[in-house]
User: Which sequence fits this backbone?
């Protein structure tokens, strides 16, 4: 896993995450639900699974109100890299402006 700029992430980067938002396209749906199950069932954090096309219908509000303790996992297949899902990475905040 890495940041939007390609910088690798370490375990310490996830220490404060209390909620994951897992965005997926058609091919990423099984992975998204598997990730959500692992995170929730181990008690690490909460997780919300959403098709990236539905994220703009208001689901982004929770994330924008909880930037300090939320992380967005964007699952993009090679076929979707040039689609709106692939370009959505550049629209997500890199860090909380409230930290």
Assistant:
């Amino acid at each position: 896993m890495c940041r939007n700029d390609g910088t690798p992430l370490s375990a310490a980067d996830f220490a404060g995450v209390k909620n994951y938002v897992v965005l997926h396209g058609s091919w990423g749906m099984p992975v998204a639900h598997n990730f959500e199950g692992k995170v929730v069932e181990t008690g690490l954090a909460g997780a919300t699974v959403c098709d990236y096309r539905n994220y703009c219908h208001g689901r982004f509000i929770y994330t924008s109100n909880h930037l300090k303790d939320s992380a967005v996992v964007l699952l993009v297949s090679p076929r979707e890299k040039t689609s709106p899902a692939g370009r959505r990475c550049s629209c997500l905040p890199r860090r909380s402006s409230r930290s």
